[in-house]
Each structure stands twice: as structure tokens, then as C-alpha cells.
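Per reviewer request, we include the raw input and output of the structure prediction for the construct analysed in the revised manuscript.
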Amino acid sequence: MMFTFSFRWGIKGIDPEYMSFLIPGIVAVTAMFGATNETMNIVWDRALGTFDRIVAAPVSPPSIILGKMLSGTVMGFVSAMVLMIIGKVLYNVSFGNVVFVVLITVLSCFSFTGVGTIISGFSSEPREALMLSNALRFPMMLLSGVFFPIEAMPVLLQWVARVFPLTYATEAIRTFSGQFSFIVWVDIAVLLAYTLTTMFVGSKILLKSITG
């Protein structure tokens, strides 16, 4: 999505136009951190021995993993909705088609949950999970067009940005919050592909760690 990027500071603070650009990106980032943090609680459960008791319960391992994934999605979604309300109340940011923004946020949370599940499956202790997650999340946050347009970055970094699901979540939320563009359907398709792939791979890895 093309965007004329400029900082214009006035007596009352930052330019409202920039806030309309920034807040949708912050909503996507909040969804990412909320979803991945909740999913990575699996590693804490395993470290504290809680997960062993959960597995011993008369519940199938796939059901346990599905419950953890849904928990991550709900946490990411609730966190993102709080930021949406703050953006609307404090900065009067319009989210345009709110229904579609909410649906995109839910889909984004599922994709971020899948990423968190993969990290949890590969991590043997909480510190390792935190290191792996931050090594992925912070580059995503800085390169996914949250704070400035992707078009303003060098071409190489633009290609790197297109690898991250946060790029498509930010672009889709921002598009539905402003002028509609058909590029949002590409964002939805990519997010859906990320969701299906990461949740499938993450559940397989986590299931193997549980049953193995």
C-alpha cells in the first residue's frame, strides 16, 4: 500500500495522519506478542512439571495442543482489541470496516499462534524459548512496516519483510482501516497459508515432544 510518509509535529503532538498509519501496525504487533507469549507458556508448563500432569489427564494430546493454540489466539485477539479501543479513544483513529479488521486480527492471531507453537516445540526450557522468540519477533516488528512504510526501506529489506506474517497482518489491518485495496486479498491468502502451515508443523513438533 502506497503511503506518503512524513513527520509533522505540532503544538498538540504528533501528526494525526501518522497515528492513523501507526496504530493499525501497533494493533498487529500487540496481537503477535500476545499470541506467541501465551503459546510459549507451554515451555513453562513443561519446565514446572505441570504439563506432565495435563498429559496424564484423560485428554488426548491433540486436544491439549488445540487448547493451547486457542488460548494463544484468544490472548492475542484480546490484547489487539484493547489497543484498537485505545487508538480510537485517545487518537480518534478510524478502523474503517471494523468487522473485517476484527476478522483479519483473528486470522493473524492464529498465524502468530502457529509460530509460537513451533518455537515451543523446539525449546527445552523457558530461556531458550524467549531467546528464539525475541530473535524472530523484534526483527519482524522493525521490518514489517509497523513504524514506517516498507517502500521506504532498501529493496533487500523489502524482500525480507515479505517473509514475515506480521507484514501481511499490518498491511491488511491498515488497508481495511483506510482506503480499500484488492492487495488485501493477497494478504489474507498469505496469512491463511501461514496459519495452516505453522499450526500443522507446530502441532506435529509439539505432539512428538509430548508423546516421545
